[in-house]
Amino acid sequence: MCDGWQGPTNMHIINFLVYSSRGTVFHKPVDDTNVYKNDVNYYFRLMKKVVEGVGEERVVQIVTDNQATMKVAGKQMMEAFPHLYWTACATHCLDLLLEDLGNLKNIDPVMKKAKKIS
Q1: 3-state secondary structure the chain
Q2: Contact 61, 85 (CB under 8 A)
Q3: Coil, strand or helix: which one is 88?
């Protein structure tokens, strides 16, 4: 799984985690704060390097966020490694869905009232 986030100092970090029958293990971080072009090729090369480092025979699935470039890079990974599956993170998809629902005209006032109460 790769999980990108931006910290309070505006550093952009991508954490790679590995799931196995023994649990989840932190594999490595990648600081891409100063990367000039975070395009599909960048993410593809990054994921490929991680898969090859772990051992392609040990990797069954890659999970990323739902960003367009990650989706295309994930599909390219499935072409490069036919036994491998790419999926978008379900939590990220639900977060985007709930955010869109919260912005609907008839839901927005309810959300604002709920925020005041909480």
Answers
A1: CEEEEECCCCCEEEEEEEEECCEEEEEEEEECCCCCCCCHHHHHHHHHHHHHHHCHHHCCEEEECCCHHHHHHHHHHHHHCCCCEEEECHHHHHHHHHHHHHCCCCCHHHHHHHHHHC
A2: yes
A3: strand
27-68 pLDDT tens trace: 998 888 887 778 899 999 999 999 999 999 999 999 988 888
Question: Position 96: which residue type?
Answer: L
**Spatial contact of 89 and 63, defined as CB atoms under 8 Å apart:** yes
Domains of the chain: 2-89 (3.30.420.60)
